[in-house]
Write a structure and sequence with these properties.
The complex is a heterodimer. Chain A is α/β, with parallel strands linked by helices. Chain A is 36% helix and 11% strand. In chain A, strands 1-9-8-7-6-2-3 form a seven-stranded mixed sheet, with helices on both faces. The two termini of chain A are 18 Å apart.
């Protein structure tokens, strides 16, 4: 398919209703230094309105989304997002509000509804996780991780000590080490034993780095989809050396209403609102990664914070002298947070609990039904997702491509790294039994095909706009430019 | 492919060829096979020091990015420059042309396996 630039024809254009600027309005040349001005107009594609409409409609038809098909991508919680949350976020009272308003003089009086959304969202998240307070500012999960790790650094710094090590189990999310390194920490890898964080390995790592362990970052349930069984011991080990516990909330969809991480003893948690609380994910829209903290970390939260006065009015507080500062613009992804609040309020506490129960039930149903199709390395009750290996002689990549041919998005493959030829599926609570059965049937068919006609499976997919891509050549010989001339 | 008997092996799948005071380091055939097609290798510079059990670079494949863990202590005296443009040499010849770095050893390497012990180690890892 041609790019929009390749479809450009000189002089072609569309009609629209842009108003002419006022006659004596200042022009860019009046305001900017000469060296910042363009010498020639930007080389944008020149197309008619119909060219543009057809181009993007064609692209959207080639797109694959959870609105159209099953999307069992493990570690990502690709649940269906009900449309009513879009209505809430699209209310004109929100969309027409300028983010500066609440910070200007008496402006906060004109933004009370929006401030209440932020305040209430924070209270709901606190209730859901058992944390003392949340910052809603981080723009998505990894930004939330960075915020959380900076909070841990601020805690130790305020006590006048330098701690350089962050402990991270090998079953944690891949972004955890990256976030910790970005915040200036060195990583100490903790090897799992039987799919679990090993308290003895943890104790050894702490002993190996006396007075130097800042904290532990855990993903729980972990990336194998397994619930940790030694949480109490782990918390105790870290408490002994006043190191903090970070909970990666990416897998929150398994535990809503079942476990509150604050009650367990975690000090920091980030939530991927765009996973658990049903706001569009990834390419579907901006994310939000609120970070919750225990009482001892509250003073370091990013500024500003939305507070409620005694007369039930809301204000934006910038006067936070120990704050780690600004993490994102204004108050975070407001519309995303409004959707999350709408979702939480619509489901209520019982509904959220039921969502987690169904998510776990669906994953276990799939795991059990796939026992004679794939290799399941951990034969025990899983949480919201589970890992499987391609059966002997078959490759995870080929199975994934075979699924694409059958109209199903592939699960996560080759992650986590500690499982060979890994296929990691997360069905979420929104999928029906019929859909799950179709997935099982498709996998059974693919595995049989891989055994009987391996050349056929190796050639999949056949039915998509592009066939098997040469991923190696694409990675070794990247061409990332578009000729816009 | 069998693991050459004149090399030593680490649990994290690096091989070492000791040549007097120097050692050549690479990743094993088993490692390259598990990684799949290698697309990029990040190596240290000549003069950098490496220490046993610490990472000295990384290797990226279509499946994953993995740290390279040094099996020895010492100073880097040569790196395989050819890998920058042709990382596939590791897939093609992990024990030969696909070598990674040459190290001037400080101290005798410890805790490494011989070919037979390493083969056993790989067998256990496959499960």
């Amino acid at each position: 398919m041609k790019t929009i630039f390749a479809k450009s024809v000189s002089g072609r254009h569309a009609e629209n209703l842009v108003l002419e600027p006022a006659e004596n309005a200042p022009r860019a040349a009046d305001m900017l230094p000469a060296e910042l001005l363009r010498k020639q107009p930007p080389r944008l594609p020149e197309c008619s309105e119909l060219d543009v409409v057809r181009h993007f409609t064609a692209l959207s038809r080639r797109n694959y989304s959870v609105d159209a098909n099953f999307y069992p991508l493990g570690s990502c919680t690709m649940k269906y997002n009900p449309k009513f949350t879009e209505q809430v976020a699209g209310l004109p009272g929100f969309t027409r509000l300028h983010p500066m308003l609440a910070q200007l003089g008496r402006g906060a009086a004109c933004a009370q509804g929006a401030l209440q959304v932020l305040y209430d969202a924070e209270r709901w998240l606190c209730e859901l996780t058992g944390m003392k307070a949340f910052t809603l500012q981080p723009m998505a999960g990894a930004n939330g991780e960075f915020t959380g790790v900076k909070l841990i650094a601020a805690y130790h710094k305020a006590r006048g000590r330098k701690r350089t090590k962050m402990l991270i189990p090998d079953s944690a999310h891949g972004t955890n080490p990256a976030s910790a390194v970005l915040a200036g920490f060195e990583i100490v890898n903790i090897e799992s034993r039987d799919g679990m964080v090993d308290p003895q390995a943890l104790a050894r790592a702490i002993a190996d780095h006396p007075d130097d362990v800042a904290g532990l970052m855990m993903t729980c349930p972990n990336t194998l989809g397994l619930m940790e069984t030694h949480l109490a011991e782990i918390v105790e080990e870290l408490r002994k050396v006043d190191a903090l516990l970070y909970y990666d909330g990416a897998n929150m969809n398994a535990i809503m209403g079942k476990m509150r991480v604050g009650d367990v003893g975690f000090d920091v948690v980030h939530l991927n609102v765009h996973k658990t609380l049903s706001t569009p994910h990834g390419g579907g829209g901006p994310g939000a990664g609120p970070v919750g903290v225990s009482e001892r970390l509250v003073p370091y939260l990013p500024a500003p914070r939305v507070e409620r006065r005694e007369d039930d009015s809301y204000r934006v507080n910038f006067d936070l002298p120990q704050s780690i500062g600004y993490i994102g613009p204004f108050y975070g992804s407001f519309a995303v947070l409004a959707k999350a609040l709408a979702y939480m309020m619509r489901l209520g506490g019982n509904g959220l609990t039921r969502a987690s129960e169904y998510a776990v039930l669906n994953a276990n149903y799939l795991r059990k039904r796939l026992e004679d199709v794939l290799d399941i390395p951990f034969d025990r009750i899983c949480a919201h997702e589970f890992v499987a290996s391609a059966p002997e002689g078959l490759r995870a990549l080929d199975i994934a491509k075979g699924l694409l041919d059958r109209g199903i998005h592939a699960p996560t493959i080759y992650f986590p790294l500690i499982v060979k030829e890994c296929l990691m599926a997360e069905p979420t609570e929104t999928e029906s039994k019929e859909t799950l059965d179709e997935y099982v049937d498709a996998l059974r068919e693919i595995v049989a095909e891989g055994r009987e006609h391996p050349e056929k499976l190796a050639a999949a997919p056949q039915s998509l706009p592009v066939r098997r891509l040469d991923e190696t050549a694409a990675a070794r010989n990247m061409i990332l430019t578009e000729d816009m001339a | 492919m069998s693991n050459p008997a004149d090399l030593l092996y680490s649990a994290s799948h690096e091989w070492v060829k000791i040549q007097g005071e120097e050692a050549v380091v690479g990743i094993t055939h088993f490692a390259q096979e598990s990684l799949g097609d290698i697309t990029y290798v990040d190596l240290p510079a000549v003069g950098d020091s490496v220490s046993a059990d610490s990472d000295f670079g990384s290797v990226e494949s279509v499946k994953a990015a993995s740290d390279l863990i040094s099996p020895v202590n010492g100073e880097v005296i040569a790196v395989n420059e050819a890998l920058a443009d042709a990382p596939e040499k590791i897939n093609a010849d992990a024990f030969g042309d696909g070598w990674l770095i040459k190290v001037k050893l400080s101290g005798k390497p410890e805790g490494l396996m011989d070919a037979a012990a390493y083969e056993e180690h790989c067998k256990n890892e496959q499960h």
